[in-house]
Each structure stands twice: as structure tokens, then as C-alpha cells.
Specification:
Elements (H helix, E strand, L loop, with lengths): L1 E3 L2 E3 L9 E7 L4 E3 L18 E8 L5 E5 L4 E14 L5 E17 L2 E10 L4 E7 L8
Antiparallel strand pairs: 1-2, 3-4, 3-5, 5-6, 7-8, 8-9, 9-10
């Protein structure tokens, strides 16, 4: 059981994720990654039109990352799995890392802006802000 801002959420005992998400709606209700029986819900089932906050909660730590959502921005949230390889003496796999990405995207005067947190499994965070005008071809 995890608690965010006074609300309790079910997380399966065998959950291997380092972070789980919880959507907070404008009517005061919550929609968590796992239902009351511990079954994982789909990210696509989040009611985006009611979403005001999106939380990523640390499973092994009290870390909580929150993105505020309003009419002008759209949620970005995904996990990236990166395979570790060793090339000496023969190419072989040495496991993988998971990177959690959380942030928002918005369009202002026709320009696309993104603000994202890249969160590793140890809780280290890298903040990245980018806009499409900065992605010009090198001269």
C-alpha cells in the first residue's frame, strides 16, 4: 500500500517497478497504475480531460515526482529500457537499466516545447527543456 497526499493505493507485493504512477483528477479522485486487486491498468485509460496532476511514486523510497497539467500542456510519461552489453572478449548482455521519463509538452505560437525529467532507478534526475526551434540542422 502506498499513500500520496492522504490517498491510499494498492501496489502488488511482487511489483518490480521502481516507480508507479497515480493520476489526480479535477474532481478530487485518483486513478492509479494498479487497481484494488493489484491488476495493472493501462496508461491510455487515464482521463486526460480531467487530469490536473500526475505523480510518479518511488517504491523503495519516499521520492515523489509530480507534473501539473493544465489546458495548455500535455503529459509525457514513459519508461525506456536500455540493454547493457559488454564487447570483451565476446559480445554479451549484462542486464538492463530502466529510465523513467516524466514531463509535459505544449505548443506556444506554433512552437513545440517539452520539459522532461529523466529519472534513473536510483532516483537521480536530469531535467531537460527543449523546443523545436533549438533542433536546427547544424551549419
Amino acid at each position: 500500500m502506498k499513500t500520496i497526499q492522504g490517498a491510499d493505493f494498492t501496489v502488488p507485493e511482487d511489483c518490480s517497478l521502481k516507480y508507479v504512477w497515480v493520476a489526480e483528477y479535477s474532481d478530487g479522485s485518483y486513478f492509479s497504475q494498479f487497481d484494488e486487486k493489484g491488476v495493472e491498468r493501462l496508461f491510455g485509460d487515464i482521463e486526460q480531460d480531467k487530469l490536473i496532476k500526475f505523480h510518479m511514486c518511488g517504491m523503495d523510497s519516499p521520492r515523489l515526482f509530480t507534473v501539473l497539467i493544465n489546458d495548455s500542456n500535455r503529459l509525457i510519461c514513459f519508461r525506456r529500457h536500455m540493454q547493457k552489453h559488454c564487447a570483451s572478449p565476446v559480445l554479451h548482455s549484462e542486464g538492463h537499466d530502466v529510465l523513467y521519463v516524466l514531463g509535459f509538452q505544449k505548443t506556444v505560437k506554433g512552437v513545440n516545447f517539452k520539459s522532461m525529467m529523466f529519472i534513473d532507478v536510483d532516483g537521480n534526475v536530469k531535467l531537460v527543456d527543449e523546443n523545436e526551434n533549438e533542433k536546427r540542422e547544424p551549419r
